[in-house]
Design goal:
Number of strands: 7
Structural class: alpha/beta
Strand order of the largest sheet: 3-2-1-4-5-7-6
CATH superfamily: Vaccinia Virus protein VP39
Helix content: 25-40%
Shape: globular
CATH architecture: 3-Layer(aba) Sandwich
Number of domains: 1
Strand content: 15-25%
Largest sheet: 7 strands, mixed
Number of helices: 9
Length: 249
């Protein structure tokens, strides 16, 4: 079983694509990719695998899988992936489908690996159905990887609540984000019949959308937390982004 290395994520093509489609600066993108290392460390993949990304967002992970030699399919209810799709329309091993994670438009056992990176927390219901659909779409003895927000990390929960207040005040809308504890997520995994192989976390402190007055403070806090996390491995369980690697038995 081989896992992707974080170095693959620092491919200039992917970074530039994200800068373009997310309309963010390069420094912000690099910080985001640093937190995503737990996604890659929990993703077993090999060339020629057929991989599904549920809740793919802009679709950058599908680009990575395609470059790794897989056939990658991204699913999302939004149209964000269309921006990357237009830029990479000639890439034959990459496809995107607009659909709901609760009703994936694929036959049972269609994929070798099914992943969902920090997407499930952005819905308000039916978390168990989301995981069930991922399992259904995975081949027997295939892998399911899910990452999400960790409620044990108060340094993530509190800034998120502040961000929510900010979004409500400025844009008159709510940023939807559910926080789970590892135990309740393991219970969902057991309930659908998946076998958990590994659980890990990272990102003692990170904040994807820092409020303008706190940008410098946030960057400094992220850098300090990153160094502490590397030195004290036991603190990883408190990381704001937790992930689960499961086998479809």
């Amino acid at each position: 079983m081989k896992t992707l290395t974080t170095q693959l994520y620092y491919d200039e093509l992917i970074i530039e694509l994200l800068v373009t489609v997310a309309m963010a600066d390069k420094d912000e993108i690099m910080r985001y990719l640093r937190v995503k290392r737990v996604d890659l460390e929990l993703t077993p993949i090999k060339p020629h695998d057929v991989v599904l990304d549920v809740g793919c967002g802009f679709g950058q992970d599908c680009v990575l899988f395609s470059k790794w030699g897989c056939f990658a399919v991204g699913v999302d209810i939004s149209k964000d992936f269309l921006r990357i799709k237009k830029l990479l329309k000639d890439l034959a091993t990459l496809n995107f489908v607009r659909a709901s994670a609760f009703k994936l438009p694929f036959r049972d056992g269609s994929f070798d690996v099914v992943v969902s990176y920090s997407a499930i927390e952005h819905t308000s219901k039916n978390y168990l159905e989301w995981v069930k659909e991922m399992k259904r779409a995975t081949k027997k003895s295939g892998y399911v990887t899910i990452t999400t927000s960790n409620r044990l990390n108060v340094l993530l929960v509190i800034p998120s609540k502040i961000k929510n207040m900010y979004m409500r005040k400025k844009y008159k809308r709510r940023h939807l984000e559910q926080f789970f504890v590892p135990k309740e997520f393991r219970q969902m995994i057991d309930a659908v019949g998946l076998k958990m192989i590994k659980c890990d976390s990272c990102g003692l402190y990170y904040h994807s959308y820092p409020l303008t007055p706190f940008v410098k403070i946030n960057k400094c806090a992220e850098d300090i937390a990153f160094v502490v996390e590397q030195k004290l491995k036991a603190l990883r369980r408190l990381g704001g982004r937790m992930g689960f690697l499961c086998l479809n038995i």
